[in-house]
């Protein structure tokens, strides 16, 4: 009880040049309980998850002891290879065990994300609450419609295999420049060192000084990625002189009235990325927006309209016909279709909707299916 009272009196995080006193926020019992609940979301039917939730106070104390004594050792991740999207990109997904790994990851991120968001570039949108795809799309549309002079030319580029090639030592250096809490840094280091890219391909592991790779699938990875590119975001905005810039994870788009300035910005970004031991893909593009649309985030941006990428239109129409043929709408198909409707609502695609979606699915019914499932999840949460 006394320990809980102390936790309640924790001072807020002070955002100095190098931030300290973070570990005490991670090991706070309230933070650990919320982290367990967050990690359990959409997994409450699993026996291992139910066992933890039945005694959440006891497991929070056990997690606190584990963190205080620094006895948390990440288990070997289960690797799963998937073919993602229409283009069937091969991705290696790491799946950590629920207890204690996922719970520790959520407890860590609940504090670490505050550091990331505090110093984030305003138009760094990937995996950021309140921004994401919609935030990046809204910004691009605003720039194109209201500032046509400075959005005449577009530079589009992305980092080659961003997650698999992220250098552990470079990430640690960036963390040490921003954070001075040694216990928090040791926890971050343990999470970072728990995976190397050779683990996904069953190759020989590298010495930790040369190790690369953060795994797709871990809750911590998008936040490490956003933090890793923060200083590059600010340098590009301050030193290249380009009019508008946006980054979504490892994809960058820059706008300007000068093609020469964009080419110089490309050289600057390539040098900065190379300094972190990564590379920019060779398929970068500089083009005139009025002559061809910007294909980004699943949308095609024109000077006067925004449409959906053709491959996504195909995926939406296929999903609509799949639902129409099924005897009932599964929760998975309902979630997928309602998500796809977000593309249609946020683009100029009404004619596509009227022809290829509306005749096959009842969106109101699908939302009802999702609402019923959410109600069941909420009741299970309240019961805990």
From TrEMBL:
Transmembrane segments: none annotated. It comes from the Bacteria. Pfam families: RVT_1. Signal peptide: none annotated. Residues 1-345 form the Reverse transcriptase domain. InterPro entries: DNA/RNA_pol_sf (IPR043502), GrpII_Intron_Splice-Mob/Def (IPR051083), RT_dom (IPR000477). This is Reverse transcriptase domain-containing protein.
